[in-house]
Write a structure and sequence with these properties.
Helices cover 39% and strands 11% of the residues. It is of the alpha/beta class.
Length: 193
């Protein structure tokens, strides 16, 4: 939910690092993480922001992964994928207005770990960065850990069925418009060999 502004600032002019941030549009920090913030100098094109509208669910995130994140990773061919995994985009986070469930975090982790196996010999590092629902962040974290390790526990997310039934989880036209604009930025990314 929060824009990766610190990571963006550190690598904004560095062409050796591709940064991608999926976050709630104009939430925190204010006026940070726009589509226009695309890198500078030698790093021009190596910073991609996907400022998703409030209320985005798995449909928007899945589309952003399929149309922006994965194509950018394949174009950049990283040596390693590092993920600041914030659980503050969950549907019950008190500070955000997104709609992700633990199953959504599991699905996104699967997509990233599959890309890591194809692109960089499975080298992926995921850190926990945010998530302010004390009762729900642990389910999201467990889903990520289960997906990364291949070990399935017997702990079930009791809120998953309710969250999966919420209206608006599918990709909405206003969300698709933002993702389309972000996807166009992938073409600016110089291909690395």
């Amino acid at each position: 939910m929060h824009h990766g502004n610190g990571t963006q600032a550190v690598f904004y002019e560095d062409p050796s690092v591709l940064t991608i941030s999926l976050h709630q549009d104009n939430l925190f920090p204010p006026d940070s993480g726009s589509l226009a913030e695309n890198g500078a100098g030698a790093g021009d094109g190596y910073n991609i922001n996907v400022p998703l509208p409030p209320g985005s669910g798995i449909g928007a995130y899945r589309s952003a992964f399929e149309r922006v994140v994965l194509p950018a990773l394949h174009r950049f061919t990283p040596d390693m994928i590092v993920v600041a995994s914030g659980f503050d985009a969950s549907g019950v986070d008190p500070l955000g207005r997104m709609m992700l469930s633990s199953a959504a975090y599991r699905e996104m982790t699967h997509m990233l770990s599959t890309a890591a196996r194809r692109l960089c010999n499975g080298r992926i590092l995921m850190t926990h960065e945010g998530g302010y629902s004390e009762m729900y962040a642990p389910y999201c974290g467990l889903a990520v850990l289960e997906e990364l390790t291949g070990i399935k526990t017997q702990i079930a997310d009791p809120w998953q069925p309710l969250m999966a039934a919420w209206g608006g989880n599918d990709l909405q036209p206003h969300q698709a418009a933002v993702i389309d604009a972000a996807a166009a930025l992938v073409n600016r990314l110089p291909a690395r060999h």
